[in-house]
Design a protein that fits this description.
By secondary structure, the protein is α+β, with helices and mostly antiparallel strands. It has helices at about 5-15, 20-40, 55, 75-80, 90-105, 155-165, 170-185, 190-205, 215-230, 250-265, 270-285; strands spanning about 50, 65-70, 110, 115-120, 125-130, 140, 150, 235, 245. The radius of gyration is 21 Å and the shape is elongated.
Length: about 290
């Protein structure tokens, strides 16, 4: 099989089906409409909220994962909670959860950390309550350690992926999607957000970033080598500068995947079937053998 055709088929298979996208949009728009109705007295599915995470960055893959939604609450809500004792952020998440429960009484929600989780059968929506700042970023809740607000700049995160993807003729998002499939198939304990940031850093400096699917075998191989070298390092979060520790619990899986990618790249010119078998050890049956 031609490398170009193999990876073209793989990328095509990773895309959500029209039914999956429609279902996801129905779920997330319903949540946004519910909160707009309660906090702003408007029946609107887009105002005061944005898609963040993979749906906001257009890096979503199938099978469907969570949909992340940020909802900007009125400043009056912030002022109201500032007068309360205790963990204000935890209390705020519980209020938002109770508002949603009135619309979705049969859905077992929970609010902790930074989100309210709404686990619908087909999709889970992760709702991030937030307060818009004059800088254009947001404060979001963090219930850990007694509670606090932390800075979040989804616009900067989206812009980072957009810019890299434009400079690399779409290769950045394709790499992110492929590595999310590896993450899921091989149970890699590395967060999707870290994969996105590392993919951007890699592609921006990869000498073949402007080439097409024919180079995707090398792109996967070279990214995995880059990833192994990043174990234990820190990476900056766009917009806020927060430092994210990558850890190394995933390193052995990345090393194994790299070794298999090296074999697969070698087989591509001599035995396409063996190449496909090696790729499937990394990505599973989503990537065709032949």
């Amino acid at each position: 099989m031609d490398v170009r055709q193999r990876f073209y088929n793989f990328i095509s298979y990773l895309a959500l089906t029209p039914d999956q996208r429609l279902d996801g949009n129905t779920k997330q728009s319903g949540v946004r409409r519910c909160l707009n109705s309660h906090y702003y007295s408007v029946s609107d599915a887009t105002s005061n909220s944005i898609l963040v995470g993979s749906w906001g960055k257009a890096t979503e893959v199938r099978p469907p994962r969570d949909i992340d939604v940020l909802f900007a609450l009125p400043k009056s809500v912030y002022d109201r909670y500032q007068t309360r004792p205790g963990n204000k952020q935890s209390q705020l998440l519980q209020e938002v959860k109770e508002v949603l429960t009135r619309t979705y009484p049969n859905t077992n929600m929970r609010g902790d950390g930074q989100v309210v989780m709404i686990p619908f059968t087909s999709y889970a929506v992760e709702l991030v309550p937030a307060f818009l700042l004059t800088t254009g970023g947001y404060w979001i809740c963090d219930t850990n350690g007694g509670g606090r607000y932390k800075a979040f700049d989804p616009g900067a995160e989206i812009a980072l992926v957009d810019q890299s993807d434009r400079n690399a003729v779409g290769n950045t998002r394709h790499l992110i999607k492929m590595m999310k499939r590896w993450q899921g198939y091989c149970s890699v304990p590395l967060k999707s957000f870290a994969i996105e940031l590392l993919a951007v850093h890699f592609v921006d400096n990869w000498h073949n970033r402007g080439k097409d699917y024919y180079w995707y075998d090398f792109m996967v191989r070279d990214f995995l080598a880059f990833l192994v070298a990043c174990a234990g390092k820190w990476i900056a979060v766009p917009g806020t500068g927060e430092q994210l520790l990558l850890g190394d619990a995933w390193k052995s899986r990345a090393e194994t995947a790299y070794d298999r990618a090296v074999k697969a790249c070698g087989y591509e010119t001599t035995n396409a079937l063996l190449a496909g078998l090696e790729w499937q050890k990394i990505f599973g049956p989503d990537i065709p053998i032949s």
